[in-house]
Amino acid sequence: MRKTIIDVQNISKTFKITKRKTGFKGALANIFHPEHEYKKAVNDISFNIKEGEMVGFIGPNGAGKSTTVKMLSGILYPDSGNINIAGYIPHKQRKEYVANIGVVFGQKSQISWDLSPLDSYEVIKHIYKIPDKKYKENIERFTELLDMQKFINQPVRQLSLGQRMRADIAAALLHSPKIVFFDEPTIGIDVVGKEKIRSFIKSLNKTDNITMIFTTHDMQDIEKTCERLIIIDDGKKLYDGSLDAIKSNYVSSRIIEAEFEQLPEKIDIPDVTVSDVDKNRMKKFITFDTSKIGINSLMSTLLNNYNIKDISVKEPEIDAIISDIYQGKIIVH
Ligand SMILES: Nc1ncnc2c1ncn2[C@@H]1O[C@H](COP(=O)(O)OP(=O)(O)O)[C@@H](O)[C@H]1O
Ligand SMILES: [Mg+2]
């Protein structure tokens, strides 16, 4: 059995926001009678993560993902609750703790805009006292895997967002941390760039057994990289489990796409709904409820009684499911 390496119990974080009023009277009020608002960004969240596990954190904007990552990395302290990561209490033992972790914030570059990535890496080597051999090995490996040869010597300000993000990821991994937090590493990046980042993260988790948390609001990120996901919204944890379990447990309606050799006058099967597929007359969607009718029996009914050229079961649209979960249409436990 793998050991628990991240243990988070009932953490909450509330931000105090000062309401800013404008105009002369407002300016005076700001000074003498400041008004405050409170925002509970993280509301009683708990979870455990085992060594080498890769967990996707998904939630819409403002859900509390970054606040959670900041507490996990020791940048912010929780108002209540406990965090224990690899034996450390992050915000209390920050100095010793950070040697064990890497953090990547998609919204904010960690490396200097004026230097080239390679120059920044030299600085990081010095700060973290990374031994020569390890440094060299890591630089070589990350340059290759993240395809950075072309821009490793260019000032960061000249790089595209995708290149900059890859350079940032390498920076966070140079000291070979055993735990890495990625906070929206794919935000704003084009499809090809996203793929590079996803496959790198995935392969690193496999080969180096690094424990990872990957936050995103892009479901594709999770589908392609993580088996386990934690869904958060409005500071609360809504779901913790596998993606497959969501698909099979929470969606009972499925769709079969059938292409007919010859179109029947009528498709007469109880408990199914037949609809058109775009303008293609020979193709039909057959929607049914898995609690009323089994996939296999429906498939054989179709194949035995109709003249079918091609048939396939469509995967449930995970984006739609997640959005139903956010809206409270599906209650998960
Ligand atoms: N430093 C801060 N001061 C005040 N409010 C904040 C601060 N950081 C985050 N918030 C608020 O907390 C909530 C959660 O934010 P955040 O953790 O950044 O969400 P996410 O990363 O999921 O988009 C939001 O309502 C945000 O406006
Ligand atoms: Mg965020």
Quick tags:
Rossmann fold, alpha/beta, single chain, six-stranded mixed sheet, binds magnesium ion, 11 helices, four-stranded antiparallel sheet, Alpha-Beta Plaits
Give the % helix. 25-40%
Total separate domains:
2
Ions, cofactors and other ligands present here are:
adenosine-5'-diphosphate, magnesium ion
| Structural shape | globular
Q: Just name the CATH architecture of the largest domain.
A: 3-Layer(aba) Sandwich
Would you give an account of this structure?
This protein folds into two domains: 244 residues, Rossmann fold (3-Layer(aba) Sandwich); 64 residues, Alpha-Beta Plaits (2-Layer Sandwich), CATH 3.30.70. A six-stranded mixed sheet has the order 5-6-7-3-8-9, with helices on both faces. The relative contact order is 0.12. The mean pLDDT is 91. It is 34% helix and 31% strand. With 333 residues, it is of the alpha/beta class. Helix 7 links the parallel strand 6 and strand 7. The site of adenosine-5'-diphosphate has 12 residues, from strand 1, strand 2 and helix 2.
Write the topology of this structure.
Elements: E1 4-19, H1 23-32, E2 35-50, E3 54-58, H2 65-72, E4 80-85, H3 94-97, E5 101-105, H4 117-128, H5 132-145, H6 161-173, E6 179-183, H7 191-208, E7 211-216, H8 219-225, E8 228-233, E9 236-242, H9 243-250, E10 253-260, E11 272-277, E12 280-289, H10 295-305, E13 308-314, H11 318-326
Parallel strand pairs: 3-7, 3-8, 5-6, 6-7
Antiparallel strand pairs: 1-2, 1-4, 8-9, 10-12, 10-13, 11-12
Bound molecules: adenosine-5'-diphosphate and magnesium ion (MG).
Adenosine-5'-diphosphate (ADP) binds at residues 15, 17, 39, 41, 59, 61-67.
